[in-house]
């Protein structure tokens, strides 16, 4: 570790250590594509070694660009993602208006152009703080979103391992509660419809199901599983796999309401009755699940409230100037009883 890295590094420190001008260091942060790969990589490597972060908040105060939050939201590729994102965005926007903040929203996708746009906004001094509701932070040309110098709050995904304060819902505990709810009704065999491998929420919810089984029955080895995604069609496919089983579990737990809606529709179309032939419980609290026949029993995470809480946490961080490193705030999802579960 260098002498400079033991104290808070400055722009001048980075320039001196990298052997470049101050303007080159600034360009590496704001416009890395304008530098050669060799120079850019050298400057960014020194930046990380010294622990330098641009003080965007201070620059905002000098330029008057204050009281604007930037929210990076998931792409609208599936209805449930769209609904959850819309509810979260509404909560963020309402809290911003209450506190006198403007809100700039960008919806993520997998293109370099969008990543570059988000990074330009974050590094360009056009926001006072950032709410990240995405599976992974952006990185492009060696420049990472979490290094932009802005206060950041993660909404829905726990990023405390990156020292990013996070507002999350009780994915794991809710699925443990689902096992208890079904076990109390006499169910001992379970079919779990999980989400994609790369989904934080799918991993958390499956961990909850398995932990619940181990806690209640001593083992999770009997769990039968189908991998779905957010879509209705994936739920229909899960139902086809379930119907093909020789020994069908009496209880089905679905990781997301959208897939649960497809599953229930296919099961009913096949001539089975819910909850007479099988019980179904899910997660998300989508309004559409309450209009199914029967209404689906689901854990409602109330993304409007979570969005408002994330916005207020970020505003508090901006106002205090002292972000709570690594703090995680978990809000419990509430069980909507529906009519899709019954004693075996």
Keywords:
344 residues, alpha/beta, Rossmann fold, 2 domains, 6-stranded parallel sheet, elongated, disordered N terminus
Describe, in plain words, how this protein is organized in 3D.
- The protein is an alpha/beta fold.
- It folds into 2 domains: 56-169 and 304-331, Rossmann fold, CATH 3.40.50; 171-300, Response regulator (Rossmann fold), CATH 3.40.50.2300.
- The protein is 43% helix and 17% strand.
- The strands form 3 sheets. A 6-stranded parallel β-sheet has the order 2-1-3-6-7-13, sandwiched between helices. A 6-stranded mixed β-sheet has the order 9-8-10-11-12-14, sandwiched between helices. Strands 4-5 form a two-stranded antiparallel ribbon.
- The longest helix has 21 residues, at 79-99.
- The protein is elongated and about 75 Å long.
Q: Concise description?
A:
The protein is of the alpha/beta class and 344 residues long. The chain has 11 helices and 14 strands.
According to DSSP, the number of beta strands is: 14
Strand order in the sheet with the most strands: 2-1-3-6-7-13
- Work out the strand percent: 15-25%
Helix and strand composition category:
alpha/beta
Low-confidence runs: 1-6, 60-65
Mean pLDDT: 86
Spatial separation of the terminal alpha carbons: 63 Å
Q: Evaluate the radius of gyration.
A: 23 Å
Please identify the top-level CATH class of the largest domain.
Alpha Beta
Largest sheet: 6 strands, parallel
Oligomer: single chain
Written as H for each helix and E for each strand, in order along the chain, the element string is HHHHEHEHEEEEEHEHEHEHEEHEE
Assign the CATH topology of the largest domain. Answer: Rossmann fold
């Amino acid at each position: 570790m260098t002498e400079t890295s033991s104290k808070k590094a400055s722009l001048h420190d980075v320039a001196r250590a990298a052997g470049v001008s101050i303007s080159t260091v600034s360009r590496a942060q704001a416009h890395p594509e304008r530098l050669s790969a060799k120079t850019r990589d050298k400057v960014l490597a020194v930046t990380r070694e010294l622990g330098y972060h641009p003080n965007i908040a201070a620059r905002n105060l000098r330029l008057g660009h204050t009281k604007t939050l930037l929210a990076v939201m998931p792409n609208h590729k599936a209805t449930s993602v769209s609904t959850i994102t819309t509810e979260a965005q509404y909560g963020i926007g309402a809290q911003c208006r209450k506190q006198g903040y403007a809100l700039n929203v960008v919806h993520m996708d997998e293109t370099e152009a969008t990543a570059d746009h988000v990074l330009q906004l974050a590094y360009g001094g056009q926001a006072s703080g950032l709410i990240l509701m995405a599976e992974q932070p952006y990185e492009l040309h060696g420049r990472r979103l979490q290094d932009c110098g802005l206060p950041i709050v993660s909404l829905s995904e726990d990023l405390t391992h990156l020292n990013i304060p996070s507002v999350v819902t009780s994915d794991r505990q809710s699925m443990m509660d689902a096992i208890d709810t079904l076990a109390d009704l006499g169910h001992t065999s379970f079919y779990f419809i999980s989400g994609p491998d790369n989904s934080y929420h799918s991993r958390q919810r499956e961990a909850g199901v398995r932990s619940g089984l181990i806690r209640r029955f001593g083992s999770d080895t009997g769990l039968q599983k189908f991998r779905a995604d957010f879509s209705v069609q994936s739920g229909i496919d899960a139902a086809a796999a379930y119907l093909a089983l020789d020994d069908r579990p009496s209880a089905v737990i679905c990781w997301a309401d959208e897939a649960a809606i497809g599953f229930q529709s296919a099961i009913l179309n096949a001539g089975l009755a819910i909850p007479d032939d099988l019980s179904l419980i899910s997660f998300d609290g989508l309004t559409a699940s309450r209009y199914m026949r029967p209404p689906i029993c689901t854990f409602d995470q109330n993304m409007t409230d979570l969005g408002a809480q994330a916005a207020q946490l970020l505003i508090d961080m901006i106002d205090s100037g002292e972000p709570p490193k690594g703090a995680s705030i978990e809000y419990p999802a509430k069980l909507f009883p529906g009519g899709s579960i019954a004693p075996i």
